[in-house]
Write a structure and sequence with these properties.
2 helices, 113 residues, 9% helix, six-stranded antiparallel β-barrel, globular, disordered N terminus, mainly beta, 6 strands, 36% strand
Length: 113
């Protein structure tokens, strides 16, 4: 049995305040605004990741695909959050492609333009 199998709730490992510390806008975090397809909106703190994609030269077929994503606390998602919603991060409006709770109280959000 692994350690995580013995823990019933991620809050027993770290609190919601502990998770929020990772998203501090004065350090690594950024403010975001989530708008559901039904029009409900929520402001949240997130880590935004938009890696630069690299393309191979003429002599190679290597292509690196990099999809933008964000990480937020699962508790901060608005009710009814779903694929197709809009997330504004760093002044750009993104479409939510996928929402993936990671089992620790955080959620990874895959984005596209």
């Amino acid at each position: 049995m692994t350690f995580l199998d013995e823990v019933d709730d991620a809050d027993q490992i770290e609190s919601a305040a502990d998770r929020l510390a990772f998203l501090n806008a004065t350090e690594f975090g950024a403010p975001g605004r989530w708008v559901t397809s039904a029009g409900a909106a929520a402001d949240l703190s997130l880590l935004f990741n938009a890696p630069v994609s690299a393309e191979g030269g003429i002599a190679t077929a290597d292509i690196t695909m990099a999809a933008p994503s964000a990480i937020c606390r699962q508790a901060d998602l608005p009710a009814g959050a779903a694929q197709g919603d809009r997330l504004t991060a760093r002044g750009v409006v993104w479409r939510v492609r996928d929402i993936r709770p990671d089992g620790t109280g955080m959620t990874i959000i895959d984005l596209q333009r």
